[in-house]
TrEMBL record:
It comes from the Bacteria. InterPro entries: GH, Glyco_hydro_25, Glyco_hydro_fam25_subgr. This is Lysozyme. SUPFAM superfamilies: (Trans)glycosidases.
């Protein structure tokens, strides 16, 4: 092969290499690049809505310190059965509202008393209004007095719920645990009410079958918590962050 032939061949090879490199660069440039990761990007988490529930058993409560402990709401025992009125209910409600806490009221239901009488006692105490959360009916083993017929018991509980809703214009919440719920709260109509579930020392609570498709609104996670300097032994509660926080505005 002579000089001119070799020169011509080298030119042709160079052009081919340049052409291939150009195509490869074009393909690489056409692939979209991921956005740069910034250390300043903040992953926002839904803040916890924490609460406590109290009664006269806690004694005097330092409500400013409860507020400082990042508590948002408090449920306060108003009544039990057909005659018991919690002696600290009124002062706890005032203290909660004066410190900007949402306040709710609950009734401890007993199986040995008429449902309407129990409902009327509760309604006469609570003075439901702005800053208050929906009322709660506390249903647990301690409220079972003697032998009961589960069907009759469920009918009485529904009577209480319907009566309170008709008088206050708001649907109550049911407080219970999964063992009691699966034994005594099997009527389908209970699923029309939000669930406040009690279960401690677990990552997620066990839901009674009646609420299996609905889940919980409030979870009582601990019965042995304390708020330093404010209160003694107290139940600690978590409001479900996926559900709207219900408080009467006006």
């Amino acid at each position: 092969m002579n000089y001119h032939s070799r020169t011509t061949s080298l030119v042709i090879i160079s052009l081919l290499i340049w052409s291939c490199s150009k195509k490869q660069a074009t393909v690489q440039e056409s692939v979209p690049k991921p956005p740069p990761v910034s250390d300043s990007v903040e992953v926002k988490k839904t803040p916890q809505i924490l609460g406590i529930d109290v009664s006269h058993f806690q004694g005097d409560v330092n409500w400013p310190k409860v507020k400082d402990a990042k508590i948002t709401f408090v449920y306060d025992k108003a009544s039990e059965g057909k005659s018991f009125k919690d002696p600290d209910y009124a002062q706890n409600k005032i203290g909660a509202h004066e410190n900007g806490l949402a306040h709710g009221s609950y009734h401890f239901f007993t199986s040995d008393a008429d449902a309407i009488e129990q409902a009327n006692l509760f309604i006469s105490i609570i003075d439901y209004g702005p800053g208050d959360m929906p009322p709660v009916l506390d249903l647990e083993q301690g409220g079972i007095k003697g032998e009961i017929n589960p069907t009759t018991f469920q009918s009485e509980v529904l009577t209480w719920l319907n009566h309170v809703e008709s008088k206050l214009g708001v649907k109550p919440i049911i407080y219970t645990n999964h063992v009691f719920g699966d034994r005594y709260l099997t009527h389908a109509n209970f699923s029309n009410y939000h669930l406040w579930i009690a279960e401690y020392g677990v990552e997620q609570p066990t839901i009674p079958k009646t609420w299996s498709d609905i889940g919980w609104l409030i979870w009582q996670r601990s019965e042995r918590g304390t708020i330093e300097g404010a209160i003694g032994q107290v139940d600690h509660d978590l409001y479900n962050p996926t559900k709207p926080f219900e408080v009467i505005k006006k």
